[in-house]
C-alpha cells in the first residue's frame, strides 16, 4: 500500500460511458504437459503466460494440486448487499493430517460485515466457530484428512457494505493529510466500502490463511498497513451485477453474459494468485495497452478519462522497465482500477490488479480546494494571504499540481512493483511489512531513475522518502525500529509511513552504493527468480546481495541492522527543522529557498498537529 505524501502539500503551501462487456473467451487450449489436469484448472491456467507455467510448477508442485476456489457472487449496489457461495478444494500437504481449517474475512476486522453459513466439509454439514481473532472462522476437520488427501469446504456468505467514509474521494481521505495519527484510524482504507458508483469488495471472498510453524494462522489486519496475503491459489469466479455495472477482479476475463432478469454475469479465471480482490463500478471507461504479451488495463470514472489514460501509460512504462530487470510478470492480464480509497492511501496492491485512489485522479485539477474545511485552515490561509495574497496561492497551486503528477506516476510504479513484492515473491505483510513495502518503494524510485534520469530520481528520493521521515519527526514523532509488525506502530499511519515507506527503503539505497549497480541489480533479479511463487524471509534479499558481492557480506548485514532494527534516522537522513523543510521544498519547486518569519513559523508549528489529523 502506498501512503500518499500529503505532508508535501502542506510544505508546498507554506513555501508558496459504461465499460463494455468482455467478449466470451475461447475454449481453454491444451496445456503442454497437463496430462489429466481437470478442465477447471486448465481454464485457470489461461491466466498464466505459457512460458510461466513450468516455472510455477517447479515452485508449487503439480499445478492441479494448487488450492482451487470456486466463487459465485451476486451484488446489489443500490442496497449495498453482496451474497453468494465459495468453495475451496485443497490437497493436504505436509507430514501431518489436516485436523482444522481457517477462513479469513478481512472486512470483519472491526465488526461482522460479512457472515458465513451453511458450511459443508466434503459434502457433510459442519459447524463454523469464531477463530482466535474477528476475521477468522474455524472448522474442525473430522475425520482428519491424511497427507495427499483432498479436503473440500463450501460456505454461503452474505454481507452489507458500509458507505465510504466522508471525503473518501479527496486527497485528505477521512482524516488528516496522512490519514490521521491515531492508531487504527484508517482501518482498511476503504477496501470494503461503497459509493454511488463504486463497490469495493476487497476481502469478501473467504480464504485460507497461511499457517506458522506452530500450526496457527498468520495474524490478520491490524488497522494499519495491508490486510492479508495468501498462498498461491487458482480461482474460478462468476460475479452477477445489475445492468450498467461492471465487475473487475484479477484473472483472465471469460465473458459477460446477460441474465434473463436484466443483470449481467461476469466470469474470471485466475491462476496461482495470492489474493482475489473484487470491485464493481458504474459509469467507468477503460483504456488498454499490451506490454510483452501482458494486457494492461486502466479502468476509471468517465470524468477522469484524461488521468486514467495517463495511468495506463505510467503502468505500461513501469511494467516494461520492471520486466527488463526483474523478469516477466507471470500473468496475462494486469489491471489498474480507480477506487475511492480513504485514510490517505494512494493505492492498494493485489496480484494482477491494483487500485489507485480517486484523490490522485482529481488532485491536480484543483489542489488547493482539497484544504477546504480542514481544522486550522482559516488561520493558515490568512497567513498565506498576508505573505503573497491570491497570486501566491495560484502560483503554489500550480507547483503543487506538478508535484501531484509526479506523485501519481510514482504511486503507479510502486503498485506495479508490488506485483513482484509481495505478489510474486511472497512475504508476510502483517508481521514483516518492511520486506515488501521497502522493495516496492525503492523499485518505484529505480523506475523514476530509469525513465527520467538520476536527477529526477534523486529529487523523488528526497521528496518521497527522506522528507516524510523528517516531517514525522518535526510533528513530534520518534524514530524507531522499522522492522516490526503493523500492529506495533502506535503512531498509526503517520509513523508507519515515515519508517516503513520513508526510512526503510533507504537500506536498499545504502546497499546499492556499497555493492555497486551491477551487483545490486543482479541480486534483485536473483531474489525474484529464487523466490518466485514462494515465501521469502526478511534476510533473503540481503543474502542474495551477499552472493553477488561476497566481500561485502558482513557490511550488508550491518546495514540491514542499522536501517531496519535500530534508530539512526536523524543521523542518516537529517533532523530537519521547519525552516529547513521550507527551504528544501522551495528549491524542489523551483521557487528558491523560502524564509519564514518568526510569527509564521510559530503559527505553522501550532497548526501542524491539526493538519496532520492528530
Structure characterization notes:
The chain has 614 residues and is an alpha+beta fold. 36% of the residues lie in helices and 23% in strands. The chain has 16 helices and 21 strands. The strands form 4 sheets. Strands 6-5-9-3-2-12-15-14 form an 8-stranded mixed β-sheet, with helices on one face. The chain has a 6-stranded mixed β-sheet with strand order 1-20-21-19-18-17. Helix 1 crosses helix 15, helix 8 (454-474) packs antiparallel against helix 15 and helix 12 (540-548) runs antiparallel to helix 13. The longest helix has 41 residues, at 377-417. It is globular and about 65 Å long. The model is unreliable at 2-34, 173-186, 589-594 and 607-614 (pLDDT under 50).
What is the number of E strands? 21
Shape: globular
User: C-alpha Rg, in Å?
Assistant: 24 Å
Spatial strand arrangement across the major sheet: 6-5-9-3-2-12-15-14
How many individual helices?
16
Structural class: alpha+beta
Fraction in beta strands: 15-25%
Low-confidence stretches: 2-34, 173-186, 589-594, 607-614
- Percent helix, as a range, is 25-40%
- Mean pLDDT level: 86
- The rounded distance between the terminal residues' Cα atoms is 21 Å
The largest pleated sheet is described as:
8 strands, mixed
Features:
disordered N terminus, six-stranded mixed β-sheet, 16 helices, alpha+beta, single chain, 614 residues
Amino acid at each position: 500500500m502506498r501512503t500518499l505524501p500529503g505532508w508535501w502539500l502542506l510544505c508546498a503551501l507554506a513555501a508558496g460511458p459504461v465499460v463494455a462487456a468482455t467478449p466470451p473467451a475461447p475454449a481453454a487450449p491444451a496445456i503442454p504437459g497437463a496430462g489429466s489436469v481437470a478442465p477447471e484448472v486448465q481454464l485457470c491456467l489461461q491466466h498464466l503466460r505459457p512460458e510461466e507455467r513450468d516455472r510455477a510448477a517447479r515452485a508449487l508442485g503439480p499445478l492441479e494440486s494448487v488450492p482451487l476456489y470456486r466463487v459465485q457472487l451476486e451484488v446489489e449496489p443500490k442496497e449495498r448487499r453482496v451474497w453468494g457461495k465459495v468453495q475451496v478444494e485443497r490437497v493436504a500437504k505436509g507430514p501431518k493430517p489436516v485436523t482444522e481449517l481457517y477462513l479469513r474475512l478481512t472486512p470483519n476486522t472491526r465488526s461482522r460485515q460479512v457472515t458465513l453459513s451453511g458450511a459443508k466439509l466434503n459434502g457433510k454439514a459442519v459447524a463454523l466457530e469464531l477463530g482466535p481473532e474477528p476475521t477468522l472462522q474455524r472448522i474442525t476437520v473430522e475425520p482428519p484428512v491424511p497427507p495427499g488427501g483432498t479436503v473440500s469446504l463450501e460456505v454461503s456468505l452474505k454481507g452489507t457494505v458500509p458507505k465510504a467514509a466522508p471525503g473518501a474521494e479527496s486527497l485528505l481521505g477521512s482524516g488528516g493529510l496522512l490519514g490521521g495519527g491515531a492508531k487504527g484510524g484508517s482501518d482498511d482504507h476503504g477496501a470494503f466500502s461503497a459509493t454511488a458508483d463504486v463497490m469495493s469488495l476487497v476481502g469478501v471472498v473467504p480464504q485460507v490463511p497461511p499457517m506458522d510453524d506452530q500450526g496457527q494462522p498468520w495474524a490478520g489486519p491490524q488497522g494499519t498497513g495491508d490486510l492479508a496475503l495468501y498462498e498461491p491459489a487458482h480461482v474460478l469466479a462468476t460475479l452477477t451485477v445489475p445492468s450498467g455495472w461492471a465487475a473487475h477482479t484479477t484473472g483472465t476475463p471469460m465473458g459477460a453474459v446477460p441474465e434473463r432478469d436484466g443483470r449481467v454475469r461476469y466470469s474470471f479465471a485466475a491462476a496461482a494468485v495470492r489474493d482475489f480482490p473484487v470491485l464493481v463500478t458504474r459509469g467507468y471507461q477503460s483504456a488498454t495497452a499490451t506490454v510483452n504479451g501482458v494486457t494492461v488495463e486502466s479502468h476509471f470514472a468517465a470524468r477522469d478519462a484524461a488521468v486514467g489514460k495517463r495511468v495506463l501509460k505510467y503502468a505500461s512504462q513501469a511494467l516494461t522497465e520492471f520486466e527488463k530487470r526483474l523478469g516477466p510478470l507471470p500473468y496475462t492480464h494486469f489491471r489498474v482500477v480507480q477506487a475511492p480509497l480513504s485514510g490517505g492511501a494512494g493505492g492498494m496492491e493485489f496480484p494482477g490488479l491494483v487500485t489507485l485512489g480517486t484523490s490522485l485522479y482529481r488532485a491536480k485539477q484543483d489542489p488547493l480546494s482539497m484544504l477546504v474545511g480542514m481544522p486550522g485552515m482559516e488561520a493558515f490561509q490568512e497567513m498565506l494571504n498576508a505573505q503573497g495574497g491570491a497570486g501566491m496561492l495560484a502560483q503554489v497551486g500550480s507547483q503543487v499540481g506538478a508535484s501531484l503528477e509526479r506523485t501519481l506516476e510514482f504511486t503507479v510504479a510502486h503498485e506495479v512493483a508490488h506485483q513482484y513484492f509481495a505478489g510474486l515473491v511472497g512475504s508476510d505483510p502483517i508481521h514483516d511489512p518492511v520486506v515488501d513495502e521497502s522493495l516496492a518503494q525503492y523499485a518505484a524510485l529505480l523506475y523514476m531513475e530509469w525513465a527520467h534520469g538520476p536527477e529526477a530520481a534523486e529529487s523523488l528520493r528526497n521528496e518521497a522518502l527522506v522528507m516524510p521521515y523528517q516531517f514525522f519527526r518535526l510533528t513530534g514523532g520518534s524514530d524507531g525500529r522499522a522492522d516490526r509488525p503493523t500492529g506495533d506502530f502506535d503512531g498509526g499511519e503517520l509513523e508507519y509511513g515515515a519508517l516503513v515507506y520513508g526510512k526503510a527503503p533507504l537500506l536498499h539505497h545504502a546497499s546499492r552504493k556499497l555493492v555497486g549497480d551491477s551487483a545490486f541489480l543482479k541480486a534483485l533479479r536473483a531474489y525474484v527468480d529464487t523466490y518466485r511463487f514462494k515465501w521469502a524471509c526478511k534476510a533473503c534479499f540481503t543474502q542474495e546481495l551477499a552472493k553477488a558481492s561476497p566481500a561485502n557480506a558482513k557490511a550488508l548485514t550491518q546495514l540491514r541492522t542499522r536501517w531496519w532494527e535500530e534508530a539512526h534516522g536523524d543521523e542518516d537522513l537529517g533532523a530537519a527543522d521547519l525552516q529547513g523543510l521550507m527551504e528544501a521544498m522551495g528549491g524542489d519547486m523551483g521557487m528558491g529557498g523560502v524564509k519564514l518569519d518568526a510569527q509564521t513559523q510559530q503559527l505553522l508549528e501550532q497548526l501542524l498537529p491539526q493538519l496532520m489529523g492528530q
